[in-house]
Amino acid sequence: MYNFEFEKPETVADAVAALGAEDAQALGGGQTLIPTLKQRLASPSTLVSLKNIAEMQGVCKGDDGSICIGGATNHATVAAEAGDYPALAETAAHIGDPAVRNRGTIGGSLANNDPSACYPAAALASGATIVTNSREIAADDYFQGMFTTALEEGEIVTEVRFPVPEKANYQKFVQPASRFALVGVFVAKYSDGVRVAITGASNDGVFRWAEAEAALSANFAPEALDGLSLSGDDMISDLHGTGAYRAHLCGVMTKRAVAAAA
Q1: Range of the structural domain that residue 109 is part of
Q2: Alpha-carbon distance 129 to 131, whole Å?
Q3: What is the mean pLDDT of the chain?
């Protein structure tokens, strides 16, 4: 590690002001940033912790029935308090291990947009709205590629709003060493159709599977996916699995998610 300044603002306004300093970096739960600092892959002059900002904590129900989660809310809290959206609570309950779930935050996960993280799939499949200190961003516009989002410099994820579907489920094929998703599929059925988001598979990060969505919107059953497949050409290929293997898992895990949801 190396020397840096550490700020602990108590309001969003103070956090935004602190992030205006040269080379300042926001710190959520630190599950990605701290290892990055230890490896000297990043060297911000100031870390701005978001953990003490009360307005960014907790889970509540919006006037429209959506589940609203503060950006600094950790995974364990989402698992315990997002019961009105069971699939989301269950997703949070199986992120990492207890240490990760008690430190990592939903805002940090979405801001980092790791290609194998669980929350991006949940947000994209749910058609969530990512609220920042300056605007609201639809999930379809927010995720822009591996480790890339629509966030601008100094912008903070203050809240995430999840419309609650009629039925939903998340299925994750776990990479045992990291507990990230080798492939994870989140399926959500709404009155106007089905959304399917896949994480862990693509070189472009989380994505929606349009063909599966169309088939499931017509018939929400695992057999509706018979004959559908994804190409492995643009899938991640590494020591844990080839692109073709991940493409195959996408179909398998989507069927499992549909069966569990239905």
Answers
A1: 55-162
A2: 6
A3: 95
